Amino acid sequence: MRNKKFFVKHTFEENNLQGIHLITKTDGEEIGFINFKFTNNDSVWLNLIKVHEKFQSQGYGDILIELFEDYCRKNRKYIVEGKYYPENNNAVNFYKKHEYQIDKEYYDQYIFKIIKEKTAENTNTKTEDLSK
Description:
Layout: E1 6-12, E2 17-24, E3 30-38, E4 43-51, H1 60-74, E5 79-83, H2 89-97, E6 101-103, E7 110-114
Parallel strand pairs: 4-5
Antiparallel strand pairs: 1-2, 2-3, 3-4, 5-7, 6-7
């Protein structure tokens, strides 16, 4: 996956919050993480995505969101929802880049995406077994 040197750690935490963490292969330092919660039959609440400062602008956020979306597909969760701060231009641009809709009709600002199934022919993302 883009020749980045990391490994994936998937953790389960209390209150149904789940996380995918990227860790450096060289020294075990955390690169970043994404936290989310399965909310109903086909929906996921994206709680937080964070890439630590020294690893930003290196494509790790893209890797995290790809791993997250693949994990959602594997678990038959096809709708992603979440909140964002409208003044956070980096977040707005990141979500738009990954084809998330930015819903501004509510008092609070929301992101929304319907994840389409990828076929083996049109994906080059390989994920490790995240259940460990």
